[in-house]
Write a structure and sequence with these properties.
heterodimer; A: about 240 residues; nine-stranded mixed sheet; B: about 325 residues; alpha+beta; Alpha-Beta Plaits; globular
Chain lengths: ~240, ~325
């Protein structure tokens, strides 16, 4: 176990060194390719369908890495989610991605709906129920510009020459489209996208509706575990994968 | 470092713990969804638990150039905002007393007037607190989104609500725990030193409403401002927990002469009602020098002389207490 952990840490460090020093990355080899099924069912069906729909599509087990502590004050975190199962389907001119991972804790809630009336016109205001909880989340990142070249953007939220789009889903706050061109440049676009998230039997199944991405596009995945106080770069991430 | 720095001095000898400042702030800034539990300005009893509970002991700030770890306070530490069952009592005719819900278990001055014991005598004083608008803000350093900035023109520290993602590293980093998370907006917020008022030449709401007239506001670098005089000329006001390394720009005149039964006329150093160790804990070792200076000023006045420092501390009118000069700090575009 200890050797395994050390190896994982070493490989993450090597990977980060490579990513940081080169900023951009050479596109991954075929071992990191993802096959995309042409789905006979509709986008709606894929978004809202259960295992019956998705089990038809083969899953690729994509290894997740834990980012090393980013700040001196970070609490250490164990690797609780070592792998995410990725299923992809094309339907109705969209790319539908399902991420599925084991997570022992369901860190999501339904926040009180905020009335449409301005707060100053209401006697009662919506309270903050908790200030110290973080929610499960996941994201798919891909280059903002279609690029058939051999260079993939930096894995750290892209880079100046290679901006990225990030489709972020949060178990409590829903979906949002973000853009970035390097670490700490992530910006909300104000757009969201159709998504669904179901937590059942200790497993999240989260479905994203993405624009149709061409074969050869690089995509990467991230998972945040609320119970490990994940947010920001404190998360699980995959290396770049290539769509077949 | 900003070009100018607004600062506040609070004279703890004059604070009566009435929370008028707290209400002034609350009505103006935190009467919105998600802000019920937060008090950008609060007055707490010292010694005491504080708000949030034990904020002074849980961490944050700087040490040897590094940010220090800290847990996030919980809602139980702040105290949940409560409401009353007026509906049932007044309109539905239920004969139960008006009760708060959820049951209050903590708040912005929960252990009011409990204080501590010094030998056989009880002692306490009030400590009004706002964001310290530090010269070296730990919150700013901790934010990976660069959502927090210190205004170049006047040194006020603010959180850009468009950039904030609610990560809460700032709350952990702040050694004074003066940043609050709004779960409704998913973002953190804090005291803005009433900059929209200052820009119009009006003093901060907490200062304007203070019946004790204990707040002084101005630019620390303006030789004519009361805060410059109290902090840098008379040297009778100190920041809270200077060892946290953030260099606060809110300063306190320490309580220096509360009477004790049978010790009338004795100085706090001869026969302290408030233990000097406790004042040293809050304001650092320099508090002893400050008390010596304050007592010398008091003696001067009592012997028929005139103490400029004490005259200023009386703060008879707004012109004495505040020097707001928007034209001095505005950035020329």
């Amino acid at each position: 176990m200890r050797t395994h952990q050390l190896l994982t840490i070493a490989s993450v460090c090597l990977l980060l060194t490579a990513v940081t020093s080169a900023q951009t990355a050479i596109k991954p080899a075929s071992g990191q390719s993802l096959s995309v099924a042409a789905s006979p069912v509709s986008v709606d069906h894929l978004l809202n369908g259960g295992p019956a729909v998705w089990n038809q599509i083969a899953a690729k087990h994509v290894a997740l890495n834990r980012t090393p502590p980013l700040y001196d004050t970070d609490e250490p975190a164990a690797v609780e989610i070592p792998v995410v199962d990725v299923r992809l389907a094309r339907a109705g001119g969209k790319l539908i991605v399902q991420l599925s991972w084991r997570d022992a804790t369901h860190d999501a809630t339904t926040l009180t709906e905020v009335p449409n009336t301005p707060p100053e016109t209401r006697f009662l205001k919506v309270p903050t129920d908790a200030d110290d909880r973080f929610f499960d989340a996941a994201a798919v990142m891909f280059p903002a510009k279609a690029d058939a070249g051999a260079i993939a953007p930096s894995l750290q939220m892209g880079d100046a020459e290679h901006p990225v789009e990030i489709y972020y889903w949060n178990g409590t706050r829903g979906s949002m489209v973000m853009q970035a061109q390097g670490r700490s440049t992530t910006k909300r676009t104000g757009q969201n996208f159709p998504s669904s998230g179901i937590y059942q039997n200790g497993r999240w199944n989260v479905t994203f509706e993405l624009p149709d991405l061409a074969a050869g596009t690089t995509v990467a995945f991230a998972v945040w575990n609320g119970s490990q106080k994940d947010r920001d770069g404190r998360k699980y991430f995959s290396v770049w994968q290539v769509l077949e | 470092m900003s070009r100018h720095q607004y600062a506040m001095v609070m004279d703890l000898n004059k604070c009566l713990g009435c929370q008028t400042c707290t209400i002034a702030c609350k009505k103006l800034w935190t009467d919105r969804d998600g802000t019920g539990y937060m008090y950008w300005n609060n007055v707490e009893t010292r010694p005491g638990l504080g708000y949030p509970r034990q904020w002074d002991r849980i961490g944050g700030g700087w040490k040897d150039g590094s940010l220090q770890p800290s847990p996030l306070p919980t809602m139980d530490d702040y105290g949940h905002a409560w409401e009353y069952n007026y509906e049932q009592r007044l309109y539905e005719g239920k004969r139960q007393p008006v009760m708060p819900s959820p049951e209050p278990k903590s708040g912005c001055n929960w252990d009011e007037d409990v204080g501590g014991m010094n030998a056989d005598a009880n002692y306490f004083f009030y400590l009004p607190r706002i964001c310290n608008h530090c010269t070296y803000p730990a919150c700013l350093e901790a934010c990976p989104r660069k959502a927090i900035y210190k205004r170049e023109e006047d040194g006020i520290v603010v959180i850009d609500q468009d950039r904030c993602q609610g990560y809460r590293y700032c709350i952990k980093a702040c050694p004074y725990k003066k940043i609050y998370f709004n779960e409704v907006t998913g973002k953190s917020e804090k005291c803005i030193f009433c900059y929209p008022r200052l820009e119009k030449g009006e003093v901060n709401a907490c200062a304007a409403q203070c019946p004790g007239r204990l707040r002084f506001v101005g630019l620390l670098d303006d030789p004519e401002s009361p805060v410059h005089k109290l902090v840098l000329v008379h040297k009778i006001a100190l920041p809270l927990f200077p060892e946290k390394g953030t260099q606060p720009n809110v300063f306190y005149v320490p309580p220096f002469n509360p009477p004790k039964i049978g010790n009338y006329g004795k100085s706090i150093q001869e026969d302290p009602r408030v233990p000097l160790d406790y004042l040293t804990y809050l304001f650092g070792p320099e508090v002893r020098d400050v008390i010596t200076r304050l007592e010398a000023e008091l003696k001067k006045q009592q012997e028929g002389g005139r103490s400029e420092a004490l005259q200023l501390l009386i703060g008879r009118d707004a012109e004495t207490r505040y020097r707001i000069r928007p034209q001095l700090v505005q950035i020329q575009v």
